[in-house]
Structure formats: C-alpha cells, structure tokens
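Exercise: predict the structure of this protein bound to 1,5-anhydro-6-O-phosphono-D-glucitol.
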Amino acid sequence: MRLSDDVLLDVMARFQAEMVKGLGRDTNPTATVKMLPSFVRSLPDGSEKGEFLAVDLGGSQFRAHQVKVFDDGRQSSQLESKSYPTPKEVTQGNGAELFDYIADCLSDFMETRNLKNKKLPLGFTFSFPCRQTKLEEGVLLAWTKHFRVRGVQDTDVVSSLRRALQKHQDIDVDVLALVNDTVGTMMTCGYDDQRCEVGLIIGTGTNACYMEEMRHISLVEGDEGRMCINTEWGAFGDDGALDDLRTEFDRELDLGSLNPGKQLFEKMISSLYLGELVRLILLKMTKEGLLFNGKVSTALLTKGKIEMKHVSAMEKYKEGLSNTKEILTGLNLFPSEEDCVAVQHVCTIVSFRSANLCAAALAAILTRLRENKKLLRMRTTVGIDGGLYKTHPKFAKRLHKAVRRLVPTCDVRFLLSAGGSGRGARRRLDAALAPFLLPPGTLREVRDKMRAELEYGLKREAQGKATVKMLPTYVCGTPDGTEKGKFLALDLGGTNFRVLLVKIKSGRRRSVQMYNKIFAIPLEIMQGTGEELFDHIVQCIAEFLEYMGIKGARLPLGFTFSFPCRQASIDKGTLVGWTKGFKATDCEGEDVVDMLREAIRRRNEFDLDIVAVVNDTVGTMMTCGYEDPNCEIGLIAGTGSNVCYMEDMKNIEIVEGNEGKMCINTEWGAFGDNGCIDYIRTKYDREVDEGSLNPGKQRYEKMTSGMYLGEIVRQILIDLTKQGLLFRGHISESLRKRGIFETKFLSQIESDRLALLQVRRILQQLGLDSTCDDSIIVKEVCGVVSTRAARLCGAGLAAVVEKKRENRGVERLQITVVPLPSAVCSFALFSTVLRETVKELAPQCDVTFMLSEDGSGKGAALITAVAKRLHNVGQK
Ligand code: 0WK
Ligand code: 0WK
Ligand code: BGC
Ligand code: BGC
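Solution:
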C-alpha cells in the first residue's frame, strides 16, 4: 500500500492513456474511464443573474438549494439550502419512488421557501456516470457508491425527474440542466476564480472533470473551444489496469461491495470504503495474532463497523492516539498502547495511499491541460469538494504535496467549493472575518463589563481576586513646575529598553532636556534568570553613565517598569506577573526596586538613588500632564496594552485617606482572564493565546496590542490558505513561522496609501508569493483585525472616561488622554477608529487625544523629581 513516486508516475501515465482511450470514438465503448461530455462549454463570466433552484443527489447529503445570483459586478449571490435524508429504501428502492421522493422534497423545500407561486428553472446535480447528448439530459450508465435503484440504469434521469415533478400541480419547475457534482463544483469555484478548469470530488465517491479541447472530444461535433469532460475516474482499473497495485484487502472489499468489479479506483480512495479497508487489515492482523492478543471481536467481523469518521479521528494530530483507544474500546477490542499505535499506522497507510492515488490521476489531468495549451509551465485552479477532503485532518495537505511533486511544472491552487455546487469564496472570507466585526451593542457590553471590573478592582475584598487589578501607584499629583535637577530614568518593557538622563529646569526657564540611549534586551535575557536580567540592566546603565561621563554622580533614578507591580509606596513594586515577551525567573512576587539595587550592589561600580518605580502608562500621563493639567489618563497601545488614570482617593479602598487623587494603573490587559469576554474571542484568538508565553492570561491585551495582532492575522491567513482562498492553498514555511507577521507590516499593509503592488512586495519580503487577489484579501484581514483592536480599546477607554465623569458628577467631561505613538497607536486606522469609538460609547465626554513624542521616560523623571521634592519636604 505504500506507493513510491515512481509507481505514482506510472499510475499517472496509465491514467493518461485511459483518458485518450475514453476520448476516442472507437475506443470509448471499451474504455473504463468513460470521459463523458457534459455539454458545459465555458465558465461563468460574472454576467449571470437570476433566481434558480437546484437539487444535489449522490453525495453524503441530498440537498435542495435556492440560488440567487446578482449581476452587481461584485459577483455576489445568495444560497439557501435544506438537506433531506436518503434512507436505504430510497437509495436501494425503485426508480419511480426515487424520483417521486426527489420531487416531494423539492416541493417541500419550495413550500418552506414560499416559492410555490414561482416558475423557476432547476439545475439537477446527479453524482453518477451519465451519458449526455445535451445539457438537459442524462442517461445513467451505472449506479455507484451506496446507490442501487432498480429501473433507472440506461434511462434518462431528467425525463424521470420531470415526470415526477409533473405529478405536483402546485409547483412549476423546469429542469434546465443536469450536471455531475464535479462539474457543479468546478462552476462554483469558476465563479470566484476564472482560472478554475478542474472539478474534483473526494467524498463518498471520487471523480474529476476538466475543460478539454473540443478537437479532442470525438464523441461531440465541433472543434472550436472547450467542453467540460466528466472523467468518471472511479472506474479506472475496472479492466484490471491496476490489479498489480490492488491488495488482497482491496479484492475482499470489492467482493463485499454493492458493485463488485466496478469502481475499483474509487474503492481504493473514497470515504465509503476506506474504513472498511482498515477493518479488513485489522481483522487479518488480529487473526495472525499481531493485534489485540489475537482476540477477534464481533465488531471486527462486522462489515462497515469502521467508518471514515473513525479513520479521520484516529489520525488527528494531538488527540489521535486517545481517539484510537476510545474507538477500539468502543468496538470491544481492549487495545494495548502498541495496538493503538499499530492501528493508527494502518489508518495512515490506507489514507495516504488514497491521497497519493488521487494525486496521480489529477496529475495526469493537469499534464493534459498543460499539453493542450502547449505550455511549459501552467498556472491553474482546481475546485474541490467532498467530505474526505474537507474533514480528514491530513488528506488535503498530503494531496497538495503529492500533486506538486508529480507535476512540478503546474502551479496549482486548490479552491474549496463552499455551499457544495452552490457558491462563494467571498462567503468564506466573510464567515472567517465576521466574528471580528463587533456590533455597537457588543461594544457597549464590553464597555460595561470593563466598567464593572474597574469598580470591582478598587474594592478591598477584590484584592488578589480581581482580573483588572487597579494597582495604586502612589503618584498623587502632576508636577507643579517647581521640579528641577538631573535625573536618571530607565524605561523597560516596551519595544526598546532606554536609559535616559533628564535635566529639568523650573521657574521662567522651565524646561526638560533629555538624553537617552537605547539598548537591546536579548531574548535569552528576557527569558533567563532575574539576576541576569537586572545585571544586564545595570550593565546598560554603566555604559550610559560612561557615555555621558557621569559615572561618579549618585543621581536619583526613576524606573519605568512596564509590567503589573503591586506598590506599597512610590519606590516599592512587587511584580505580580510578567507579560508580553518577558519571562525571567525568580522575579514574580519580588520587589523590582530591590532587585535593581542588588544588581547595582553586585556590580559595585557606581551608586544610584532609586526614588520611584512607575508604570509606562503613568510615566506617559505624567509627561503630558507637565504640559496639560487636564491630562489625567495615560494609554499605551504598543507591544502591550494598558491604561492608567487619576482616581479619587475615596474610591481606592486599599489606600488610606480620602482626600485628593492617586493614579491607578488599571492593568486592563488582563480584562477577560475570568472568561467574561470569551464570547467575543475567536478561534484565532485562542490559537494565538495557546501559542503565547502566558496562555489564558492578558486576554484583552492579546486582542488589542502590537505583540499579538500580527499573529492573529497570520492565523487567519493560514486558515484561509487551508481553505484554498489564499496563496493557491499553499501554506509556505514562512507562513508557518510564528511572529513573521510583525505589527509594523500590518500598519503598512492596511494603510490606504499603499498600493496593492506594495502590499505584494511586503508579502514577498515575508516569503509569501501572492496574487493581486491575495493581497486584497490580506489587506482586508489586516484592516479587520486592527479595527477590532481599536474598537475594543475604545470600549475600554470609554469605560474609564465615563467613570471619571461620574466621579466628578458632571453632565459633560473635558479630559485629555495621552496615547503614545507606539507600535499600534501610530496606525492611522487604529487611532481614527479609537477616537470614533470613544465618542460613540462615551458621548458625554469630550476626549482630547494628545499624542506625546517623549515616551514615558520624561514622566518617570518628573515623578522622581516630585517624589524627591516631597521626600525633602518630609525631611525638613
Ligand atoms: C458536496 C457537493 C456535492 C457532492 C459532495 C461530495 O455539493 O455535489 O456530491 O460534496 O462529497 P460527499 O458528500 O460525498 O462527501
Ligand atoms: C515608549 C515608552 C515606554 C513604553 C513604550 C510602549 O517610553 O515606556 O513602554 O513606548 O510602546 P511599545 O514600545 O511597546 O510599542
Ligand atoms: C460517481 C461520480 C461522482 C463521484 C463523486 C462517483 O461514484 O460515479 O459521478 O462524481 O462519485 O460523488
Ligand atoms: C503590562 C503593563 C504595560 C503595558 C504596556 C502590559 O503588558 O502589563 O504594565 O503598561 O503592557 O506596555
């Protein structure tokens, strides 16, 4: 069952020969691969419009569809469907009953869709080999799969359906076309992608169609143009052409099937048979004592006991082995660990062969298309559908890989057809992005939930329990202009680690001068030991003091430490937990000021007076507060996300005193860690969270900040690529690389200034070879992700400004918020949407956004200066 590429290339060549035989007038009658003309001569060109009905019989589901196609130049359409059961008495009954049943279901469907008063054209997807001489006719050659209805073979199924429909006086339907499901799938995908010229089904049954040159179809008059050929490749090998590859299990399975000797290729590939193949192999291995201690259970002896869903479950990435144990136990087989591994292996071999054989036949069709076009290299799209391809965890990838190995001269996009032989890549894109489009009602809920968490976090009883921790900062006032002197400041936690020297002048010459140097924090330091981290910080300080020639001075220092710290005073801060990219050991629960002091002592080269530790939001607010006393809120939407604001002391239960205000560091990044906003988190958010350094933590931050937005986009792009909507369905190594989609690319891609060509250039830089369509989709995804981030940030900020307004008990509030022009906030789209959302959700607040270029370092120095001044006053 393991087929090498040489064998696959041989199967490919054999199938090419079968195709030529099937296309030949003289050879067709004896050909096994019937190459049936479909009388479909072209793909949709977008000018189609109108309302149609369709029934789709032959796959795992029997469905009726109502399709509306609009010629609005956007190729939009609407599809409504209803499934109906196909019990055995229908699939193995007699013809008249079958078509009556189809007509009854259609009548019921029209009833439910209130269509009975309409005269509508009907398309009939009939997934069995039919010889056609025109579109609205099809003589059934043979039943396949689980169908065996008497009295239909060699009759025109369209006439049979029409007769059945005529019995329904209350419906007026005209059967205009009979198509095979492969043809329906190709047309559906062709509506989205004009390159689509192959339709492939890998489901209960398997088959493929493609656009053949009329001059090669000798069964149909005319040499101009092309026509879609339904290959009916399921019958490949029915003449023994594949007997050298068929195993004893294939033969045993065939003997036990509804149509022995028929559809032999299909019986090695499709989902109706793979489970049975696995059962027969396991049965033999058990009888030979290789499995289950040789104990054969009734289940193992029962045909059809192992189904495709079992094989797919046993091959799942993570939970495959536990599924195997569960499934085998369910079959009373009581497997050992080794048994489970062996059974998984059997499943893999069987489904791998299926994918490889499919690839070999598809490669033959692709080669024929390329040769028909006399091209050395060809770019094309394969529209694809079917349960096995859609649900098996590894089938699609294996098929794509094998096809690319067998026909390297063909650049193939695999496009999954949505809504079956119905419609719509756009629909799948909308479906993927819809969870990101948060309606105003939901945003109001987020605002109100944030507000509740803000209130709760201030309560004494919430200490240690609240997710939004509302940490007191012991910063109680904005500078009053009397501050002066030289201060050192450290700025740790953002993209860059900075050491700053800040000179503050007071009085008439009131000014702040800053000199800073940026230092890198290598990953191994960010995620090493606490000692190494603080030694590195002190090393940088030493270099800076050297560089500034101020090594001897014992300067007061303000430490901007952009992580959640519980403070008991301005110069004490116990790290609650690391966030963003940091995970140094032996730090959480420790006082970061003490750790810095110890590191300075360890170095024993200079001494500093650490006066204050502040959060970057506080430093940022203070930087701006120096200019605008109305500035009482500091917002960071950068690598991380957080906000601080001046709160009335009377509302801060854990700090003594009721007079005046104190700045609260909300640490809103952790909003939702209790699950309160899980209902807006998407599967992509969960993926990003699971792959982060702190799963389950900082959930709000992971939907709003720069460290994660790029990863969310990458996860969406992977999913869309898997669906064949992007990058030809090919997930490149680059796209698999975590963090490759840096946030800076997002702002570049989603900014309107950038033409599609430049978007493609960025994607190229990322090793993503894209089409124009691809770049349009990528641009849209970037826009949707950053818009959600801004809307969520806006909802949170609206909660804070509303609280401020109510604190003041005023109808209208004027307030200034200072966002830093950091990684995310500099997005044109982000800041616009943020402002609009705050206005929408806090209409009684006039919020001025004051972008500050100085970062938080200046603020930290000012806080240090204030603390120093207060300290000196206290000394007197
Ligand atoms: C969905 C298509 C239908 C086709 C089916 C095949 O709409 O026309 O027959 O896929 O997949 P299956 O349901 O057999 O897995
Ligand atoms: C610059 C500030 C710093 C803050 C950073 C946040 O000086 O305190 O942490 O901005 O933006 P990011 O670098 O994370 O984008
Ligand atoms: C049928 C084909 C059909 C395929 C997929 C085969 O058994 O012969 O007509 O396209 O199944 O449904
Ligand atoms: C941290 C905050 C910080 C924010 C912005 C978050 O991850 O927990 O303390 O203010 O990032 O840097």
